[in-house]
Automatic annotation (TrEMBL):
EC number of this enzyme: 1.1.1.37
Name of the protein in question: Malate dehydrogenase
Entries under PANTHER family matching the protein: MALATE DEHYDROGENASE
UniProt keywords, alphabetically: NAD, Oxidoreductase, Tricarboxylic acid cycle
Record GO biological process: malate metabolic process; tricarboxylic acid cycle
NCBIfam families: MalateDH-SF1, PRK05442.1
Organism: Microbacterium terrae
Residues binding substrate: 93, 99, 132, 164
Task of the protein: Catalyzes the reversible oxidation of malate to oxaloacetate.
Length: 341
């Protein structure tokens, strides 16, 4: 017997990432080939026509797993019965807008959406925030929903950063991305993030070896490998979003949608192949202040992300993580002063 459809709510569904998400989710890429899905699309009035157009195209695909598509510009309607929320729609930084203005504008979006999730989502709802500043927007939504939804049901997307790090290593080591494991993204989804390879491994001639050793062998020694990591790899991954904006003329779309799909799939279906990265609620792990939504290495057994604990961090790693956490705490303090958390 076919299982009941899972209700997936996508905010900003009429936007670019929304368009890249909808068809893959309806095709079964996110929840698996056996899982029917009901899509609820949330847009603001100005975005409704684009979302309606996408809904018409979804109908024209006749996806066997797609049981319904419903559109609304009312968050309570769109989150009704929501089991998986993808919170994509956000206010981009406009000309002359300061960071505080951006945080305030997004508090006005993610606060009410958190309230709507608390009021009308399914009891087991989980939501991932894609819209920037993603970590702090997740914090805002979680705080607004906290009377009814545990805060650890909210996460933010750093899977794109994780995939970018794997992609850069694969290119440098001339291996397939699937040969690399154990990369971790720590901190904020911003240029302050720390893409960490100190526990990463790569398959070479049938054996697994540390990525740092493989880099040293390729680049002519440990010092050259460290220099490449510090001067090329870390800035390249951390600033990849800006690079994409410069080259494409707008921010990443297909890779962001792919990462959001992988984030939800790993959380719901489990991380059989080792850890991945996601920004989740800190309970003080690795000295990150409790209550921040921070990227960590995470695993899931299908019931939600859990932080991988007990990894050794050297002084370099500690310094970089601390710097990103300082930025996260400053964002939290800014939205706290606005009364949003
Ligand atoms: P976009 O402008 O094409 O689409 C955003 C959509 O959100 C628009 O259709 C807009 O009408 C809608 N929207 C705005 N406010 C809304 C609200 N209150 N409720 C519902 N919908 C609303 O932008 P995009 O390219 O799809 O990017 C969306 C967000 O994702 C941006 O904030 C971008 O910076 C972020 N992003 C994050 C990552 C990541 O890895 N975390 C990667 C890429 C992009
Ligand atoms: C990305 O990492 O590609 C985006 O978060 C960049 C952006 O500012 O939208």
């Amino acid at each position: 017997m076919a299982s009941a459809p899972v209700t997936v709510t996508i905010t900003g569904a009429g936007g670019q990432i929304g368009y890249a998400l909808l068809f893959r989710i309806a095709a079964g890429d996110m929840l698996g080939p056996e899982c029917p899905v009901r899509l609820r699309l949330l847009e603001i009035p100005q975005g409704m026509r684009a979302a309606e157009g996408a809904a018409l195209e979804l109908q024209d695909c006749a996806f066997p797993l797609l049981s319904a598509v419903e559109l609304s510009d009312d968050a309570r309607v769109a989150f009704d019965g929501c089991e998986v929320g993808l919170l994509v729609g956000a206010r981009p930084r406009g000309p002359g807008m300061e960071r505080a203005d951006l945080l305030q504008a997004n508090a006005g979006i993610f606060g009410p959406q958190g309230v709507a999730i608390a009021a009308s989502a399914a009891p087991g709802v989980r939501a991932v925030v894609v819209g920037n500043p993603a970590n702090t927007n997740a914090l805002i939504a979680a705080a607004a929903a906290s009377a009814d939804v545990p805060a650890d049901r909210f996460s933010a997307l750093t899977r794109l950063d994780h995939n970018r790090a794997v992609g850069q290593l694969a290119a440098e080591l001339d291996v397939a991305p699937g040969d690399i494991a154990g990369v971790a993204i720590w901190g904020n989804h911003s240029a302050s993030q720390f893409p960490d390879v100190s526990h990463a491994t790569v398959v070479r001639d049938g054996d697994r070896m540390p990525v740092t050793e493989a880099l040293a062998a390729r680049l002519g020694g440990a010092a050259a490998a460290t220099a490449w990591l510090d001067d090329v790899f870390i800035p390249r991954v951390a600033r990849r979003g800006a690079e994409i904006i410069e080259v494409r003329g707008s921010s990443s779309v297909a890779s962001a949608a792919n990462a959001a799909i992988e984030h939800v799939r790993s959380e719901r279906l489990g991380t059989a192949d080792g850890w991945t990265s996601a920004a989740v609620l800190s309970r003080g792990e690795y000295g990150v202040p409790e209550g921040l939504v921070c990227s960590f290495p995470v695993v899931s057994d299908g019931t939600g992300y859990r932080i991988v604990e007990g990894l050794d961090l050297d002084a370099r790693a500690r310094g970089r993580i601390d710097a990103s956490v300082v930025e996260l705490a400053a964002e939290r303090d800014a939205v706290r002063s606005l009364g949003a958390v």
